[in-house]
């Protein structure tokens, strides 16, 4: 009888240990691991997680392809455009946060600076000094905006303004280096002779247009993103 009770107790003990092991495996260990992971990514000052969050250790790969119109003069005479895809132009995008302040409710406020550097190795034989012919989007955009608001009857006035303001206004195409078109800017407008027009321009500039000198406006696709920030950001620590 005692032997039978011993076997029964041993069996029950083994079953309890088995159930406890299963419960710990299914519920206990994941909770412990999750807690440790959370502790590892808490954005505490001077921690590794905080430093990785503050400044990305590995750059984001930014790849650009462009279309080069190889026969712009023929197009202006009525021919169909011949378009050549060029690229890729690889850039390393670095992000770094600064002026970081810990606020109430576990909130962090900060600014984030974004900077792009050309990666020659990833770009192969492509160079930021490659010259391409592109549509003068500033010129076309201005003409289409006037047409939409005032109709084709305003084209006579627009033609005079275009010839006065726009650089190389005799064509809808411009030639520029990839570096200028993407980042540094291509001068497309000079309205320094008309203060009224310049004032109107300043109030309606898109991000892609900047005033590089009084009355002189440059266009670039991404220049406004480089070495800049988008203003103050606020995030809960768990969302960072």
From TrEMBL:
Coiled coil feature spans: none
Location in the cell: Cell membrane
Pfam families referenced in this protein's UniProt entry, alphabetically: CD36 (PF01130)
Keyword Membrane: yes
Entry GO CC: cytoplasm; plasma membrane
Keywords, alphabetical: Cell membrane, Glycoprotein, Membrane, Transmembrane, Transmembrane helix
Predominant location category: membrane
Keyword Transmembrane: yes
Annotated GO MF terms: scavenger receptor activity
Family assignment from sequence similarity: Belongs to the CD36 family.
Annotated protein name in UniProt: Sensory neuron membrane protein 2
């Amino acid at each position: 009888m005692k032997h039978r009770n011993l076997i029964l107790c041993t069996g029950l003990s083994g079953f309890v240990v088995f159930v406890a092991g299963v419960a710990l495996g299914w519920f206990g260990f994941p909770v412990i691991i999750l807690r440790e992971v959370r502790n590892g990514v808490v954005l505490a000052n001077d921690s590794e997680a905080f430093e990785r969050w503050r400044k990305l250790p590995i750059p984001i790969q930014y790849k650009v392809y462009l279309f080069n119109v190889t026969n712009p003069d023929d197009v202006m005479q009525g021919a169909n455009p011949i378009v050549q895809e060029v690229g890729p132009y690889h850039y390393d995008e670095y992000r770094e946060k600064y002026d970081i302040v810990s606020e109430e409710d576990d909130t962090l406020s900060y600014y984030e600076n974004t900077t792009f550097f050309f990666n020659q190795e990833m770009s192969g034989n492509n160079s930021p000094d490659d010259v391409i012919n592109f549509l003068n989007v500033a010129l076309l955009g201005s003409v289409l905006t006037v047409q939409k608001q005032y109709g084709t009857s305003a084209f006579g006035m627009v033609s005079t303004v275009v010839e006065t303001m726009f650089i190389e206004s005799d064509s809808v195409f411009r030639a520029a280096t990839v570096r200028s078109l993407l980042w540094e800017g291509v001068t497309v407008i000079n309205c320094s002779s008309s203060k009224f027009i310049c004032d109107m321009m300043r109030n309606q500039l898109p991000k892609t247009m900047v005033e590089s000198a009084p009355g002189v406006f440059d266009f670039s696709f991404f220049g406004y993103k480089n070495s800049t920030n988008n203003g103050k950001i606020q995030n809960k620590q768990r969302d960072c």
